[in-house]
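WARN retry 2 of 3 for item q-0093 after timeout on previous attempt; input resubmitted unchanged.
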Amino acid sequence: MKILTVAPNISRPYLGPAAVVHNTLKGFIKINKELEREDIEITFLSINDKIKSKKLTDNINIIGTKRFPPVTFTGEIQALFASRKLEKPDLVHSHDLYEIFPWILKKIPTIFTLHGIVWKEKMFKKSLYAKIWYYLYEKRLRAYHKKFTKFVAISPYVLEELKTKGLNTSKAVVIENPVSEEFFKVEKREEPVILYPATLIPLKNQLGFLKAISILEKELKDYRIIFAGGPKDKNYEIKLRSLAKETNLNVEFAGKVPYEKMLELYSRASIVALTSFEETFGMVIAEAMATGTPVIASKIAAIPYLVEDGETGFLVDPNNPKDIAEKLVTLLSDKHLRSKMGREGKKVAEERWKDEIIARKLLNLYLTSANP
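OK item q-0093 returned
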């Protein structure tokens, strides 16, 4: 059976859906003998990736392809032309909505993984182009989802949201995101560091976290607070930097951090925080848990499905700086509790998010989807 998996920038290990598929690819390499036994060949099509086509194992290939703007209006047409150059697969698993279009037309069994709840995320977008993009994406999702053979939800929260919009979830299955094996290998060397790994956008609520730590100038005087993530909203970044200057705390805006450096930051962090307003999974939370780092995260969206409050971290109200501050003090003042939560979190991560575990779940899904 020939399977085509499609996603953007697969060779980049730390970038949204690209990281998910990159980790999945490594998981499939680990279970390659199982692919051989089932006579399965998987080709990974990486969009907008300079990676050269190559054979990774006898059963796994990767090829790169180019996409040209404006994708919002021409994505399906470009995907249709690109599909003509590919060998006809028996099943297509796409992490990109545009790329699934030609295979629906050709009546090939299709699986789609949804990585974002667009009707939630668009509330935090201001530009006209972004609003148009989200509007059209939701329209496409509504039109295409009835044609999917299977629908992968990366958390139970995604299923709940699909139901609220009246979308059919009878074909949906929950398969969580895999975490790269490098995070499980991180050796903790805890320092007085609080890490907030997220792109600087209002949805990620760095502003709320800054308001919380400003309450704790005395308790955090010996700590470094590192915001690791590139800016995408200039006005928001200015607001964050302005508020940070008003505190007497050691706040660092590290910008977009290379993958290897992120592993180092996780190693040093006493706590990883993410008080965002929306998460369909919460990849940085799963990564933090894999490294054995306790987390403080919002009790919204998908995060409560990852973090057990009081056991692997603390869940907080993202709109309540006092609540966030209180949980920070509790963790910072108790090293034994941090260690215990870190151990429990790592145990959960090892049971749920190792790449070979997710690869096996997908393999089972492929077998049942191609032969219903």
